[in-house]
Amino acid sequence: MKLNTKLGDKLALSKNYAHKIWLVGDGLTEEEQLKAPKGTLFIPFSQFPPKRRRKDCFYHTTPAMMSPTSFENMDSCENWLPRRAMSAWRVAGILHALEGWNVHECGHTILDIEKIWEASLQHGFRPLMIPS
């Protein structure tokens, strides 16, 4: 996993399985999930969610936002997201079109995150809340 140099000192790659919050990508294996302690929260940063292998752990959705209320006939974009939720990738595409941004965010190239966050809120997208 590569990290932005500004963010690299904020995260550490764990050398054990004792932590209760895991940021996981596509490479998470069933064997690794089974090593997690009971009550672990798996938070994916990938496009697809991990397979739920544990009933005694919690699984957050993939990165997503709730669509604006002005969107009509909106169900969900992916079958693992709640109604009216859109994956972060789809939201990004819509924002690029609405804002007229003609740059491509690819791999580790990302525009100003604050600018993107503000634009998403201005266009009516809202954070996806985690059910308690």
Could you write a compact summary of the structure shown?
This protein is α/β, with parallel strands linked by helices. Helices cover about 20% and strands about 15% of the residues. It folds into two domains: about 1-60, no CATH class; about 65-125, no CATH class.
Structure description:
The protein contains three helices and six strands, in the order βαββββααβ. It is of the alpha/beta class and 132 residues long. It folds into two domains: 60 residues, no CATH class; 64 residues, no CATH class. The strands form two sheets. The chain has a three-stranded parallel β-sheet, with no helix packed on it. The relative contact order is 0.13. It is found in: Membrane.
Short descriptors:
6 strands; 132 residues; single chain; CER1-like_C; 3-stranded antiparallel beta sheet; 2 domains; alpha/beta; Very-long-chain aldehyde decarbonylase CER1-like C-terminal domain-containing protein
Sketch the topology as an H/E string, one letter per element.
EHEEEEHHE
Q: Give me the secondary-structure category.
A: alpha/beta
Give me the number of helical elements: 3
Task: Tell me the Rg in angstroms.
Answer: 17 Å
What's the average pLDDT?
85
Distance between the termini: 30 Å
- Total number of domains: 2
Quaternary structure of the protein: single chain
How are the strands of the biggest sheet laid out side by side? 1-2-3
What is the helical fraction, as a range of percent?
10-25%
Strand content: 5-15%
Q: What's the story with the biggest beta sheet? A: 3 strands, parallel
Low-confidence stretches: none
General form: globular
Total strand segments: 6
